[in-house]
Amino acid sequence: KNQVEQSPQSLIILEGKNCTLQCNYTVSPFSNLRWYKQDTGRGPVSLTIMTFSENTKSNGRYTATLDADTKQSSLHITASQLSDSASYICVVTHYGNNRLAFGKGNQVVVIP
Amino acid sequence: SQTIHQWPATLVQPVGSPLSLECTVEGTSNPNLYWYRQAAGRGLQLLFYSVGIGQISSEVPQNLSASRPQDRQFILSSKKLLLSDSGFYLCAWSRLVGRFTEAFFGQGTRLTVV
User: Fold this and answer.
1) Residue of B nearest to A88 (CA)
2) Given this model, what pLDDT does residue B96 score?
């Protein structure tokens, strides 16, 4: 079973609208959690990183939240733009061995 | 600053031909290195990771192999490609900096086996 589960698998949203992506993980012990944005045919680029003591982190129109007790994170995209169309990947780092556990990504398509 | 180089960006190879994808990291020492494959519409699948020179761990049995001849060089190889080896291959590196694990990806190689 994958240690990082993301939902929804894919979604289509209208330009200007908001959306929220979910990430649930079972990695333990947990070091930190990152959200990456991957444009089609490109490598993932980091958006945010949070440790267990951080509840929220913003990067422009992207806001990530983390509940380390329930092992859940979300990525909120505000006022979506066409350039937000991409796959958003949740990555959790295992504390100690530095291993990365990847979710399968949320595929977001923003339409005009 | 640290950078990661991965090449080639695209590759079309016939079935049965050999493969060599190269990844190098600059600006850091002793990074953890990873090779991932991403099939169309699928998530990232870890193929190999390395914690040091000559130290390779394989995550899934496959037609591919990896080598780390130098501290900042990671190579993905195959002696004979299969059609199922087609996909998007990503190299990544990570390093513990304080309490954070910094992870960075290359731009990927689109491999098409024909």
Assistant:
1) B43
2) 72
* B99 inside 8 A of chain A by CB: yes
First to last CA, chain B: 38
Residues of chain B with pLDDT > 70: what percent?
Answer: 91
Q: Please report where in the chains the tokens 């290359």 appear, as a residue.
A: B106
Strands A100-102, B73-78: pairing is unpaired
pLDDT band at A30 (very low <50, low <70, confident <90, very high): confident
Using CB atoms, pick whichever of A43, A45, A98 lies closest to residue B101. Answer: A98
Nearest residue in A to B103, CA atom? A46
The structure tokens 């501290």 sit at B71
Q: Do B106 and A105 touch (CB under 8 A)?
A: no
Q: Are A86 and B24 in contact (CB under 8 A)?
A: no
CA B35/CA B19 separation, integer angstroms = 14
Question: A60 Cβ partners below 8 Å, 6+ apart?
Answer: none
Instruction: Tell me the per-residue pLDDT of B62-75, one tens digit each, with 9 for 90 and over.
Output: 789 999 999 999 99
- pLDDT of A23: 97
